[in-house]
Design a protein that fits this description.
The structure holds three protein chains of three kinds.
Chain A: E1 3-13, E2 22-30, E3 34-39, H1 45-52, H2 55-59, E4 63-70, E5 73-74, E6 87-90, H3 103-113, H4 118-131, H5 147-159, E7 165-169, H6 177-194, E8 197-201, H7 205-208, E9 214-220, E10 223-227, H8 229-235, H9 241-248, H10 258-268, E11 286-297, E12 300-311, E13 315-319, H11 326-333, E14 341-346, E15 349-350, E16 357-360, H12 373-383, H13 390-396, H14 412-424, E17 430-434, H15 442-457, E18 461-465, H16 469-475, E19 478-483, E20 486-491, H17 493-496, H18 506-511, H19 518-524
Parallel strand pairs in A: 3-8, 3-9, 6-7, 7-8, 13-18, 13-19, 16-17, 17-18
Antiparallel strand pairs in A: 1-2, 1-4, 4-5, 9-10, 11-12, 11-14, 14-15, 19-20
Chain B: H1 3-18, H2 23-40, H3 45-68, H4 77-103, H5 106-111, H6 118-147, H7 158-182, H8 200-222, H9 240-248
Chain C: H1 5-27, H2 36-39, H3 41-61, H4 67-85, H5 96-107, H6 109-127, H7 134-150, H8 157-188, H9 201-215, H10 217-248
Helix pairs in contact in C: 1-3, 3-7, 4-5, 4-6, 5-6, 5-7, 5-10, 6-7, 7-8, 8-10
Classes of the chains: A alpha/beta, B mainly alpha, C mainly alpha.
């Protein structure tokens, strides 16, 4: 079998850094493989991907040794643009990568650069539109596309020159579950029907793990190894919830999908222990009260008549499909926007943004403007008339050691934690977060989870909107489900989530709605 | 409508305007510009500027005329009329520009750039398409900073607004540059996917502009009745051919472009 | 954008010609004068000349291509210029200038010119400011960016910001004076304040000075102060971001 990608003793260092991003990496990806690139943030996934099409080192600069062959072509022998007909690259934020306004013209851009004949271009545009199921989008402005549509258009735009190798940098991290499904389905089609080679860097492994043939693990300090998905996921300590479950229960091989887990449970005749006691709902004082809240934009009502009380000590998860009104509700609760109907009160008075409730921005980069993490936290403190307390907050989030670092130099996870620190410094009683775990690796999620639990335990409330079912299962004491702008469920996670076909965590899917997390299950056996 | 048609029409109308101060020729051009604007205006910030151009033009006429009165000794009927006519010429020129602004699609205009100018034109188009995102970013950042207690009101708080917006922009620039590089930007010769086509209304529009300019250019070389005598003050000539050529500029107002 | 002696010479020549195009009212001999209709020819000719110059400069600066990095940066920074143009531009002050000043200072004179010109062009298209003044405005803003790139990039922040603020202040006036120069013959014609080709440069300069005082001085003072204030408040953090972006993108900062 021929190789699509081959790394031969590749080492690479960025110019201002003394550590190696890639160190003596040798591996091969066979043609037609669907490969997962995984690893902790900062371990080199992005660097590895970019080494395949030559962006590393041509675009980034740096010290490079070794050889990378893509479909037989050496990446050192030409600039990335020379490889555009061989390898296609899709960045993490496709919205920022568009060059023109119309979808159809965007698809043609790469081919125009290759001076392809107009007739060929027209044919390939049609083919690619069908391939990614975006034909109905051809006349749309790229600005009007949804997240999943944007991602698929970006894939199409990179594929039109006829590349056989496709590189994707965290394509589903910003997408809701439905859009993520669509993108993964499209990738499946590319691999199965067209025999393309796909290299996919991802943190969200719940669904992907079952699709891939092989995995490439970035272990940190420049070490990168390739192998079977189960082995590599074990090595990088990551994977879907069922893998974690398998590891805890000592199963071998570790299951990668819900189906595999069910089979293994059957084969082994596995029986869970006693069902754990449900967590008692919080009896603390009400910190934030929403009564009959309605809100909308330009004629459409997005939030309808919502009643919600947030009590001290709770960690509440807000779930629902995209467009169900979560973000709008959060903004009303945070005092950023006055509801069109009803009221949001804290202690009897209308909620004040930044005083009674603080909403952490969905994009942490929106508030980072200082030169160091410490100064960032101090900026908030000073705005509230305080001068000390920064180290304590940073330590609580586990980023105390980053106090003198520039926020923009940090990884996505560290930036989020910095933003949370800056938000928490307002000392508001209610902390609101909108999709905080987008694009975060497992380690950072854990840190955030631990912090939020501790924060609520101090007598405050945390409310977070999320699609991350596993996070909710682990962290939330209460789940509120929103659909069409209305609250359709409000109660303990076990009641609200576990029975739902869409929102059930993987452990529940395997063992029934009594079980939310692998840790719960394995804990019951003792 | 092919954007090139608008360019040719505007150039033609501008040339006609600048070649004369004769109101019998200028006023039809003004009317033509207005009619074309009314018939083909697009929705968008550009279209609203027509009013500004008109105002600017009116202001020019007024200023010019008023300036005559600065030197009492030079005030005369001829001087006033001269100033009025020169002002009128400029006002009509501005109106032509106003029309171009409101009918031409900026992206269409940029797509016409010859190969040599592909990159600057692309950069300009990018600036136009990224601008709405930048404006949205400013709103988001302002709100997020307000949430943590930093109000962007005074000058001192501006970095809290400017830095996040710029940093986000820089990160997006890296993504964009990577994506362009990976898609073969700068490889050399390029082809065009779907060049704009010259449909009949476009050709007619272009011809109206070019023909009008040609007629007046000929008149210029022959020195036929383009200027108005103000010393002594006398009624200007109105040569039918020239009046007609000026009126023809209104042709696009009666054409409906095929929806492309 | 890389540098070479030929390019530098060409830059100089082109800019001298550009300056001539702006300063023609003082330099054109009386031969061009005459009756009203032909008086208008000279500005038209020079407008065309200006366009050609701009084109030439573009082509020369872009020789070897701008490249995806420069195009992307101009796109993003130009977008900021478009977004910032609206507030206050009528009054002369425009926040858009701060972009050109800091970006020119961070990325070099060549980049500064191209950004100034393209950003002005884009904002003209977008806001509907595509008027006969546009080529001149493009060159004027381009010069502002180019000069910012020529300001010394000293190690001391204080010095760097100080020099840039002073530069912003001066160019606030210079920009106004230049644009007003373009506007002057059109606005005043043959009145007492206007340009008279028969008179020598000295007399015309005097007339222009009076015109300038009466019209533009106020706006320009506003702009000069505005520029300096923006630089003092924003330049340090913005330059920090841009310098880091230049490093991250592995940009070669040339002329």
């Amino acid at each position: 079998m021929t190789e699509a990608v081959r790394f031969e003793d590749v080492s690479f260092q960025y110019l201002e850094r003394s550590d190696f991003a890639l160190r003596h990496v040798s591996l091969a990806v066979p043609e037609g493989a669907f490969a997962l690139v995984c690893g902790a943030t900062g371990a080199g996934k992005s660097t590895f991907l970019r080494a395949v099409n030559g962006l590393v080192p041509h675009f980034t600069g740096g010290i490079f040794s070794g050889r990378v062959l893509v479909e037989g072509r050496n990446t050192l022998e030409g600039a990335p643009r020379e490889l555009s007909d061989v390898v296609a690259f899709v960045p993490q934020d496709p919205g920022a990568s568009f060059v023109v306004d119309r979808v159809e013209d965007e698809l043609a851009y790469a081919m125009e650069n290759l001076a392809m004949a107009p007739a060929t271009m027209r044919r390939r545009v049609e083919e690619t539109l069908d391939l990614l199921d975006i034909e109905r989008l051809r006349d749309r402005s790229v600005r009007t596309l949804s997240g999943g549509e944007r991602q698929r258009v970006a894939i199409a735009a990179a594929l039109t020159p006829g590349a056989k190798v496709l590189l994707l940098d965290e394509p589903t991290s910003q997408l809701d579950p439905q859009a993520a499904e669509d993108v993964l389905a499209a990738l499946q089609r590319l691999v199965h029907d067209l025999g393309m080679t796909v290299l996919l860097a991802e943190h969200r492994l719940d669904r992907v793990a079952g699709f891939v043939d092989m995995a490439i693990g970035c272990l940190g300090q420049g070490r990168v190894i390739a192998g079977g998905p189960a082995d590599i996921l074990e090595r990088v300590q990551a994977g879907p919830a069922v893998s974690r479950l398998g590891r805890l229960l000592g199963w071998s091989p570790v299951p990668l999908t819900v189906r595999q887990a069910r089979r293994m449970a059957q084969q082994r005749g596995f029986k869970p222990g006693r069902v754990p006691q449900p967590r008692t709902p919080s009896q603390g004082p009400v910190l934030l009260e929403a009564k009959g809240v309605s809100a909308g934009y330009e004629g459409t009502v997005v939030v309808k008549n919502v009643d919600l009380s947030l009590r001290a000590g709770e960690v509440v998860a807000l779930m629902g499909r995209n467009g169900a009104g979560k973000s709008t509700l959060l903004r009303c609760l945070g005092g950023l926007r006055r509801p069109d109907g009803g009221s949001v009160t804290a202690g009897g008075a209308e909620v004040e943004a930044g005083r009674d409730a603080a909403l952490c921005p969905q994009t942490p980069e929106d508030i980072l403007f200082k030169d160091t993490v410490g100064e960032e936290v101090r900026a908030t403190l000073q705005a509230h008339g305080r001068n000390d307390g920064a180290p304590k907050i940073l330590d609580a989030l586990g980023i105390g050691h980053l106090a003198t670092r520039h926020p923009r130099d940090l990884s996505a996870g560290e930036r989020l934690l910095t933003a949370v620190a800056a938000t928490v410094s307002t000392d508001a009683q209610v902390l609101l977060l909108d999709e905080p775990t987008r694009g975060l690796d497992g380690h950072t999620k854990e840190r955030l989870s631990r912090f939020l639990r501790g924060y609520a335990a101090e007598g405050r409330t945390v409310l977070f909107a999320s699609h991350d079912v596993e996070l909710v299962a682990e962290l939330a004491t209460r789940v509120v489900m929103l659909a069409g702008g209305e609250v359709i469920a409000d109660g303990a996670p076990r009641e609200v989530m576990a029975g739902s076909p869409v929102f059930a965590p993987q452990t529940a899917r395997v063992f029934g709605s009594d079980w939310l997390t692998p840790e719960e299950l394995s804990g019951s056996l003792e | 409508m092919h954007p090139g048609a608008w360019i040719l029409w505007s150039l033609g109308a501008a040339l006609v305007t600048m070649s004369t101060t004769n109101p019998f020729y200028l006023l039809p051009v003004l009317g033509a510009a207005w009619a074309v604007h009314a018939a083909h205006r697009t929705d968008g910030p550009q279209a609203r500027s027509f009013r500004i151009f008109l105002t600017f033009g009116a202001l020019t006429v007024v200023t010019r005329t008023l300036l005559v009165f600065l030197l009492p000794s030079s005030v005369s009927a001829g001087a006033i009329v001269s100033a009025l006519l020169e002002g009128l010429r400029l006002a009509v020129l501005l109106t032509v520009f106003g029309t171009f602004n409101s009918v031409a699609d900026p992206f269409g205009v940029l797509r016409l750039a010859p190969r040599r100018f592909h990159e600057p034109a692309l950069a300009a188009a990018l600036a136009l398409s990224i601008a709405p995102r930048t404006i949205a970013s400013v709103a988001r950042v302002r709100e997020a900073q307000r949430m943590r207690g930093i109000h962007i009101g005074r000058l001192r708080a501006l970095p809290a607004l400017a830095v996040p917006v710029l940093e986000t922009g820089m990160e997006e620039a890296v993504t964009l540059a990577e994506s362009m590089d990976a898609r073969g930007h700068g490889r050399g010769r390029r082809t065009r996917y779907r060049p704009e086509s010259w449909d009949r209304p476009s050709v007619a529009t272009a011809v109206a502009g070019v023909a009008g300019a040609a007629v007046f250019l000929v008149a210029m070389t022959r020195d036929i009745g383009l200027s108005v005598s103000t010393f002594p003050l006398s009624w200007p000539e109105a040569m039918p051919v020239l009046v007609l050529a000026a009126c023809v500029l209104a042709l696009p107002a009666f054409l409906t472009p095929s929806r492309s | 954008m890389k540098d070479s002696l030929l390019r530098r010479v060409l830059l100089l020549v082109v800019n001298l010609l550009g300056a001539a195009a702006f300063l023609w009212p003082f330099v054109i001999p009386s031969a061009v004068g005459g009756d009203g209709a032909h008086e208008a020819d000279a500005p038209v000719i020079f407008a065309v000349l200006m366009l050609c110059l701009g084109a030439l400069l573009f082509v020369e600066l872009g020789r070897g291509g701008l490249g995806p990095k420069a195009v992307a940066l101009i796109g993003v920074l130009g977008a900021a210029m478009v977004a910032l143009r609206l507030p206050g531009f009528i009054a002369g002050f425009s926040a858009m200038f701060i972009i050109v000043l800091v970006a020119g200072n961070a990325f070099g004179a060549g980049f500064g010119f191209v950004l100034g010109a393209i950003g002005t062009f884009a904002s003209g298209l977008f806001v509907g400011g595509f008027g006969p003044w546009l080529p001149f405005q493009m060159v004027a803003v381009g010069w502002m960016g180019m000069g910012a790139g020529l300001m010394p990039r000293s190690e001391s922040w204080r010095l760097r910001i100080g020099v840039l603020a002073a530069y912003g202040f001066i160019t606030g006036f210079a920009f106004g004076a230049l644009m007003n120069l373009w506007f002057w013959p059109f606005a005043t014609g043959s009145s007492a304040l206007g340009w008279v080709p028969q008179m020598g440069p000295g007399e015309n300069l005097q007339r222009y000075a009076s015109f300038y005082l009466a019209t533009s001085l106020g706006w320009d003072a506003l702009r000069a102060v505005g520029n300096a204030a923006m630089v003092i408040v924003l330049a340090r953090p913005l330059l920090g971001s841009l310098d880091r972006a230049a490093r991250r993108m592995h940009l070669e900062v040339g002329v």
